[in-house]
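Why do we care about 3D structure at all? Because function follows from shape, and shape follows, mostly, from sequence. That is the central idea of this module. The next example makes it concrete: a single protein chain, its amino acid sequence, and then its structure expressed as C-alpha cells.
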Amino acid sequence: MPKRSYTQTPMAEQEPPIRKHNFEEVALGYTVAQGKLEASRCLQCKDAPCIKHCPVMIDIPGFIQAIKDDDMPKAYQIINRYSNLPAICGRVCPQEKQCEMVCKLGKSKKFEAVAIGKLERLVADWSFEQSSKDKAVKLDKGKVAVVGGGPSGLTVAGDLAKMGYETTIFEALHKAGGVLSYGIPEFRLPKDIVDKEIQQIKDLGVNIQTNVVVGKTIDMQEIMDEFDACYIAIGAGTPKFLGISGSGLKGVYASSEFLTRVNLMHGYDFPNYDTPVEKGRNVVVIGGGNVAMDSARSAKRLGAEKVTVVYRRSKDELPAKKEEFYHSVEEGIEYSWLTNPIEYLGDEFGNLIGVKCIKMELGAPDDSGRRRPVPILGSEFIIKADEAVEAIGQGANRVLLDTFPELDLNHWGYIDADEETCATSIAGIFAGGDIVTGAATVILAMGAGKLAAKEISNYVTQEKAKNREGSLQ
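And the structure:
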C-alpha cells in the first residue's frame, strides 16, 4: 500500500490570468484515478465524526470506500440515499467548517483533511455521464405543496417524492433553484449542473410551477384547501443596506440585484442575452462573506480594472470560504481590512465617484462572539469608485408573510418553526431554510428539508388515519 499523502490530491484549475476574464468553472474536478488516490487517504473511522457534522448525515466513509474500491455505482447509491443535490453540494458546501473540519486525519498536525467535497463532486459528476436515472415511485400517499424552489424546497420535494407523495413546488422566479440559480456565479456553480440536478428531482415525479408568487398569484388559503400539507422555503432574499448618505447614486447596488443580473439573467453574456449589466471600472464591494467574494470576482470578470473588497474586520475574521478568498487574491482582487464605508460620493449628474471610508479597530466581543469593530476618529479616506456593491446580508422575503398574518414570526421577522420538526404555528404548515434561520448555507437549508420531509410524512399519515377513524364512527 502506498504511503498516505500528507496533503489533499490537488484539483486542476483554470489559471488565474485566463479565468479572471471568463465565467467558466474555475475548479475542473477530479478524474476517477485522482479520486481513488484521495479516497485512499481516508482512515475509515468507526465513529466517523464527519457524518455527525454533515447536515444531511451522508455516509461519508461508505461512499469514499466505494470510490477506493473502484465501485462508482455504489458510491453514487450511497450518496443518493442522503442528498438530492450532491453535485451542487460538492462545489459550494463549506466542508472546511463541517465534515472536513472534524476529519481525524486532518486533526493531526502533519496531514490535511480528506477532500470530502471534491470526492462528492466526483461521484455526482460521474453519475451525469450514466444513462440510468432514478425511477419515480407511485405517488399516492398524499399531496404536498412546497413554496420556494431553492435548495431546501428541492430537497423536501425530492425526499417526499421518493416516499410516494405527489409534490408541487411553487417558484416565484422563471427558473427553479433559488440562490443556486440567481446568487452563485457560473464560475463557481455552472448552471447546467443546477439544471441537471433539478431535472433528476423532476424525474422523481415532482411538479415545478415557475412564475407563481404565493401571496400574489395565489394565496396560502388556496394551497391549504388543495394540499394535505405545505412546506414554506422562500429564503431570505430581501437585501440589507448600509443606509449611508449617497445610497441612491447611480452605481450603488445590492449584491442580490447585481448577482441576479449576472447569473440568472446572464448579464455577463450580452448581447447573446438581452439583459446587460453595468460594468464598472473601479468597483468597491462591501462585506466579507461568500456573496462578497462572488460579487468581487464577477465584477473582475465583467472587466473592472480594480476591485476592492472593504471589510470592517480583519482577515482572521473573514467568514468566506478560504478557497474563494485565495481564488480572489489570485485573480487580482484587493482588500481593505478594518475599513467601513460612511458615505457614497457623487458628481453633479448623480453618478458614484467615490466611497468615503473610516478605519476600524477591534474592540470587545459582540453578541456573535467576534470582536466588535470600532471606528478610529480622524481616519477617514476615500476610495475612487464608479460602482459599489453592498454584500452585507439579506432578510426575510415579505410577500408571502405580509399576506399570511396567521403565521407566527420570531422577533427577527423570520418564520417561527420548531427546530426538531419544522412545524409552524399552523397545523399542516412546515417551514425551513433561510426563512427560518436567516441567511445561512445551502447544506443547512437542505438539512431542514430532509427533516421536514419525514415530519410532513408523519403528519399526513396521522391526519389520514384520524379522518378514516372519524368516517367509521
